[in-house]
Amino acid sequence: MSAADGDRSFPQELVRRYVTCGQGRVRRYLKLLHGNFTRLDDPDRARFLHALAADARQITDEDLHALLAADSRPG
């Protein structure tokens, strides 16, 4: 998905996809905050970093710009 797709939920859909995604009680942005992911056990940290790297490869420049330009911090 990109901004060009005309999705009316943009950038909220991007926020859900790249910022607040995750499993369990703690979402991605909280695991990144202050390096909290370093406290995960090895298997959980590996899964977290693998998913993060996969999304980093997938996000378009346009979508990344939209996330950085918007106030995309979860509320």
Q: Please identify the structural class as seen in this structure.
A: mainly alpha
| Rg calc | 13 Å
Strand content: under 5%
Tally of separate domains: 1
Low-confidence stretches: 1-8
Total helical elements = 4
Helical content, roughly?
Answer: 40-55%
What average pLDDT do the residues reach?
80
Query: Could you describe the largest sheet, including whether it forms a barrel?
Result: none
Order of helices and strands: HHHH
Distance between the termini: 23 Å
- Note the overall shape: globular
Query: What is the tally of beta strands?
Result: 0
Pfam families: DUF6000
Structure description:
The chain is mainly alpha-helical. It has one domain. 52% of the residues lie in helices and 0% in strands. It starts with 11 loop residues before the first helix and ends in a 6-residue tail after the last helix. Mean pLDDT is 80; it is low at 1-8. InterPro entries: DUF6000 (IPR046042).
Short descriptors:
single chain, 75 residues, mainly alpha, 52% helix, globular, disordered N terminus
Tell me briefly what this model is:
The protein has 4 helices and no strands.
Produce the secondary structure layout.
Blueprint: H1 12-19, H2 28-32, H3 42-58, H4 61-69
